[in-house]
Amino acid sequence: MPSLILNTCGTSLLTGGGIADDLRRLLSKHANSSDWSVIPADDANTLQQHADNRRQNLLDANEQQVRRLSAELNGLLSWQQRPQTPASPQDMYLLLATDTVLGKHTAKSVCLWLQQQGYSAMVISAAGLNTASLNSFRQALSGLVKDLHEQLSSYKASGYAINFNLTGGFKGLNGFLQALSTIYADNAFYLFEGSSEVMLIPSLPLTLDAEQVIRQNLRAIRRLSLNLPVLAHECATIPELLLFSIDQERVLSEWGELLWRNSQSKLYKQSLYPSISERVTWGDTFE
Fold first, then answer.
1. Which pLDDT value is given to residue 207?
2. What is the value of pTM for the model shown?
3. Which residue from 109, 125, 127, 130 is spatially nearest to 31, judged by alpha carbons?
């Protein structure tokens, strides 16, 4: 069975290997910068040269060196070497990068290495997926749920096993994806630093049944999922966990998006529901 492997990507390629203190401070200082252009020229030149050098080192490295250079690839190679999970030519690798120039450069480097080995790989991200702002991060997670729901469901329907490699990446993102993996993935796995064995966390035999909450607030949640305005009293019975406020407007949180995406198909197969907008109507013949 082919696999889709979602890999969280941090910046281990840039920060590992005994770098100078001045360079480490620069990497930390500009960790959330969105583009080279927003970094002062001297700092940008230093960081870009370092990032390009590390990319070339990775592409020229043997397997043992690759393992030392990249936490993400170290975990992935250990996963592939398990007799239960041999690599398949049909496997697809998604590299989930933070919305930062350093994160995307690192993920692209890992992607290039995988492609160099003949694997199918691509980098994905979400706007605001960084640690500069908690609100932006949560909005990014909400958008990420929508994208991943579509991609993972499509691959699952095509007969793929879904696996999450959470060896790289940062704690906030990995914690969320660990929860997500119990719904969408067959397995999540880690390779702890200094270890040579994969820690496998299989999907729990649970289903996320939010039907009662969704049904009770169906109109409001449907409107929120489409970024349509909802009055305060219409949200009164929606659990706070499923919502957060942006500019005094209520929107679905990352958990709200997750519940809705997981329930939407089942609910829509059951009946035709009333329109959520006065601009859309239908008659008995259409129904």
1. 53
2. 0.77
3. 130
